[in-house]
Sequence to fold (136 residues):
Amino acid sequence: MKSVYYILTTLISLLVMQQVSYSQTISFCEDIKPDGQMIRPNIAFTIARGGGTIKMLVNLKIKVNGVKVVYKVYRLDDKGKKYPDQTINDIVKPEWLWFYTDLFLRSAGNYLVELYLDGSNNILASGKVRILEDKE
Fold:
């Protein structure tokens, strides 16, 4: 019985480690240079009352290996519960290791972005960002 438990525990651990090792983070910044370098990266941004746009940069250790990705954007409450905010579809090339897109947010709050290959339930990358509203 102990050997079955050991084997199952080992297999589950390997699957989790494999998923984590391929997972990457999404970084946020004000703009991106043509070579992929971020301009004014941060984890918090101030936007105007009507909303504002920031960039999301994805860097992967392995090629994206797909042609379409889906960004699922969630607003987080104070306890970390996710509420769907928007979905962004983007076209990519299978050989890309990095890519970026705009993220338009309408209101202040904490947000979580999860990146998926279209049709997949496996998260490729994720990142959190805090949005503050400009008081002026």
